[in-house]
Amino acid sequence: MATKRKGKTVPCEGCRERKKKCTAGQPCERCKRLGIQCYYLKSVAPSKLESIESVNHQEIQMHVEVLEDIMRSMERELYLLKSPFRVKQIAQYSEALHSSDADYTTSDEDFDHHHHQNRLNSTATANRFFSQHEMNSNWQLTFRKDGGISINTDILNYANLMKHVEALGDLSSTIPIIKQPTLASLSAGGGYLHRNVLYTVVRRGNFRAILSCIQNEARKQIISASTMTPPPSQHHPCLLEYDQHSNSSSSSSSSSSSSSNNTPSIVFENKNLAQQLVNAYFACRFLHRVVFHQKTFYDMFVKGRYDLETSPVVCAVSAAVLTMHCKHVLTFVPYDQQLGLGEYYFDKARYAVSLQFDEPSMETMITYLFMSLYKSNLLRPQDANMYLEIAIRIRQILAETVYKHPPPSPIYSSTPSHPNTFNSITTTTTTTTTTTTTTTTTNTINQTNTDAIHTTANASPKRLSKSKTMNRYLGEYETFKRLHAGFQDCVQFIQFINNQRGVPAKSLSPSRNKPSMLNQENTSFKQLFQEICAETYDPKPLPDESRHTARAILKEHYVGRIAKVVGPYFRRVRWSESDLIPLSFLMKTEEDLNQVYFHQIPLDFRLAPSIFEDGISNTEFRKRLQEDGRTDINSVTIAARYYQSLLALHEPFQPTIRRSRKGVHDITLLVPENLEDFDFKQQKKRKMCLLATSTSLPSSSSEEEEEEEEEEDDANVLSVHALRAQEVCYKCSILVVRLLEFQCTVLEACTIPTPSLFCAWDTLMRNSCLGMDEDDLKASGVNNYLSAKDIELAREYAVRCIEVLRRGYLFNGAEREVFEYYEKIESQLLTALCKSASPTAKYWEPVSNW
């Protein structure tokens, strides 16, 4: 429409072209009378300076990425020039030259003399060439603005060119093409790297601490069962029976006669406690691991229920939330009452689901799954394994019957769009600075929705239309698919307790290594376990979900992309019997990892590259993170996962730190012996046995000496890559700790990715060199790649790892031994740093002293 400003009317385009008076209508009177189209040109405001700078910044960043790609391709070409095949060819050519000049019947001393003389001659030739080249040549390397490179030389004719080529050809075997340590120039043994023994002491210590917690929990159950009076026998006959010791303690609380006596007082004080726990879950922990479709969950299990404690799903979720290390639960449930309240809701869920035990439905599957999660969080693997087995069997039935067919694809587009949908994710970014405000707002919204649900519950039921039925099936199907993440969490816990998650404890005694707490002889159930682990968890955001939920789902998707890249590499390196890893495999995996993070993940989920600049302080690191508009829990988690994966790629190739026996007792790691040195000796013995069986007895001693010489030569060849692996792991471990520390302090996240933190923790504890004095450091060669400043910095960041665990993990009541384990290590680290322990909270008071 035409606009009027200070008495002047802007005409339409038809009147303006013919210079006619326009009435400023839509259409105007003239266009309406003539029957022509009436349209106006919309005035466009000039672009703001901020948007112009943003566009320029993006263009510069794109140019930088293009230059990085060019540099990578150039480095790859240089790798090919200096490949192991070329090294072998040069070595064979030089040996042929030496053999033609010398006699074939020379002794070892003569050979050493000739070899030393040839090296002196080649060195003198190189020095003479460089001195002449510096005096006579005036070469210049120029980088042009268009990205090209020009080399200005003093070569004027063909004869001069051939002279330089001949000089370079003579020095091809002495002058390396690449002077910096690169992957392809690190191995002269046929393109293979030697896998070193990992620093297993810390890994086993954490594993032993968790097993100690499990044994302590089992002991508590036995003591409580023996001191309690037998429960009445008139409880419901369909109640699920399980372990004899836990049956007496759990069934008594489910009977109607004793339920009122065992009800916590906080339940009487707060009538909407279950509703608050569910709201707190969807406001915090749900965004860390999306296992539901929120609207479908409320429609199926919350809507129309005046007493939420009658819903087994609500009770199971409430019990699990109380053990999920969430700070928001502390606002309305004190820490000392969480365990008792969790048992109360667990018994409620167990009794309610026992009434429909034989009915395979979404409700029973979710109930048993979260009951298994509850027992997993309390470190009770026997009960967790039992409930998980029931949930998996129900899941198999539902997958073959109810949710066999996916919903039609047009349903995704027919669902009404939400204002904060997935389409707006990549256009705007919000920095999450506080989670408490979000939780309060979400709780208010959910409470309002619940009131509306109760208000509409009395209305007369109406027949659902076909579109509503399809939309409901869409939500249920998506929920069924997302619950796979919860199954994965339970399965991984069971596998960890069974020592199937990579903990190197094979040399330990079977009684201490394999706790007899799971059903190992059930082959069909083990096959279901493997199927659960093999399936992919890749949910899709629905149009009616909020922007935070959609970003959390996409975060899981991109983390899965990273795991898919490094998964085959980890299986090859960690589980293979051979210690020789192909160099090309490492190069390809690292290249694919960089390709996924820097090119396939959108900019909205990536932090600015300037944040990870080398040499910046911790204060500057935090400042750049806060100034980056893309910083939130999701982008920080993805960045931490990337650097943790890069660390894990190079971790097996770090130099092995051999400790002396006298320093073992100075480390309180719940391990009585130096297992790393023990593993190294065991591995060497296996190699010697294989060598002895494959060779004859008379020549065994001589070939053993040759094998030792070859191992020393391999160590010398691979030491350059070991230094590179040491540097990469050292930097990545510090970056991971900084990111997770920012996530749990500034962003106030209740959940941190503990695998990423523990991976950095292992490297930092290795570099801390606890229990080693100066003589031990010199004897083991640690001073060659770790300075005194590096060791001190590693100890400081190891202490910060423990602080991140306290603030971002919140040990629950069942993890006392794990807390004490890290507390012992912290005291040793502080003693090594000559510092006193800061006043930190105990495991039973997680936030009282903050």
Automatic annotation (TrEMBL):
One Gene Ontology MF term: DNA-binding transcription factor activity, RNA polymerase II-specific
Pfam families: Zn_clus
Regions annotated as coiled coil: none
Subcellular locations according to the entry: Nucleus
Signal sequence interval, chain numbering: none
Biased composition (Low complexity): 246-262
Record's protein name: Zn(2)-C6 fungal-type domain-containing protein
